[in-house]
Amino acid sequence: MSERSFVPDDFAVPPYLVTPRFRLEPLGPQHNAADLAAWTGSIEHIRATPGFPDQGWPPVGGMTPEANLADLRRHANDFARRRGFTYTVLDPVGGEVIGCVYIYPSRREGHDADVASWVRADRAELDVPLYEAVTAWLSTHWPFGTLNYHPR
Questions:
Q1: 94, 38 Cβ separation under 8 angstroms
Q2: Do residues 123 and 100 lie in contact, with contact meaning Cβ atoms separated by under 8 Å?
Q3: pLDDT digit string (tens) for the chain, length 152 residues
Q4: CA dist., res. 76 & res. 118, Å (int)
Q5: Strand order in the sheet with 85-90
Q6: First vs last Cα of the chain: how many Å apart?
Q7: CA dist 96 to 9, 81, 87, 91, 126, Å?
């Protein structure tokens, strides 16, 4: 991945997306325990989500809390350096982690951004609403023309 940001320097990166059914905020080390619990309890479901079977994530054997923390730190560093943007998906009432959204420079010709998202298996009904909300948000509030985001 390039060291340069993939959004213009003068672009104000949205810190949140809030809907009645979920809230997005930047993923960081403070989410480690809840993030780890969310995805390790839903590995099979996430791997069946469009956009994930080809990526080899999440690892079938899981991760240690330390490895997950390192991954979250990497995503937070990418966010701070404007090289990629990862948001945790939170329940708007209880605040528990229910998923994740990844926005990175596209590796595909003709696309501005590669986008992927997942929700926990026990929140599977939010997969389509999350996809629709993120697609609309990226199309109207971000400087991207074409997204590579697997439809639901």
A1: no
A2: no
A3: 445 568 999 999 999 999 999 999 999 999 999 999 999 999 999 999 998 866 778 998 899 999 999 999 999 999 999 999 999 999 999 999 999 999 999 988 999 999 999 999 999 999 999 999 999 999 999 999 999 999 99
A4: 18
A5: 17-18, 23-26, 85-90, 97-105, 113-119, 147-149
A6: 27
A7: 32, 26, 13, 5, 14
